[in-house]
Specification:
The protein folds into 2 domains: 75 residues, Orthogonal Bundle (Rna Polymerase Sigma Factor, Chain: A), CATH 1.10.1740; 55 residues, Arc Repressor Mutant, subunit A (Orthogonal Bundle), CATH 1.10.10.10. Helix content is 71%, strand content 0%. The chain is built from 7 helices and no strands. 15% of the residues are buried.
Length: 170
């Protein structure tokens, strides 16, 4: 299609659908300027479409409204619409709210609850109280080898439970 024919077709599209497209974009964006920008971008895309003149009226109208809707969705998804700003320097330090620590503790406590009482007792003594194998053996009145065995199998079971919860990798 020659440029003059394209201009005529684009002008006709704008005259027939421009106001409706703008109202549609305004309903989606609730911002007059953004709606104008969206319609302008859609008409520019229509201008660049080589099949512009080949489309029948209903197909052209559907294409324009679909393109408008898609462009608004793209703007919503973009960082600019969420008012995110890029900075050259990141903040000096992040402020942690402790949520991840609480969640980790909760997951570990739940996983520990699924272990046998024997495994849970040696793991708690070793890792939460800092007791040595000899101290645990004396306290529980079991041989040190049994303490080591319970630690080994208890930790293995704990890892499997956490993997099932999606906390750790296989």
């Amino acid at each position: 299609m020659a440029t003059s024919q394209k201009e005529v077709a684009l002008t006709e599209l704008h005259d027939r659908h421009g106001a409706e497209l703008w109202r549609f974009a305004l309903r989606l964006t609730h911002d007059r300027q953004v709606a104008e920008d969206v319609v302008q971008e859609v008409l520019l895309r229509a201008w660049k479409d080589p099949r512009l003149g080949e489309r029948e009226e209903p197909a052209a109208r559907a294409w324009l409204f679909t393109a408008t809707r898609n462009l608004v969705i793209d703007r919503w998804r973009s960082a600019a619409s969420r008012h995110e700003l890029r900075t050259e320097l990141p903040p000096d330090r992040s402020v942690e709210d402790g949520t991840s620590v609480v969640l980790d503790r909760w997951l570990v406590a739940e996983a520990l609850g699924s272990l046998s009482p024997e495994h849970r007792a040696v793991i708690a003594a070793a890792y939460f109280e800092g007791c040595s194998v000899a101290d645990i053996a004396a306290r529980l009145r079991i041989p040190p080898g049994t303490v080591k065995s319970r630690l080994h199998y208890g930790l293995r079971s704990l890892r499997l439970v956490l993997q099932e919860k999606g906390v750790t990798r296989s």
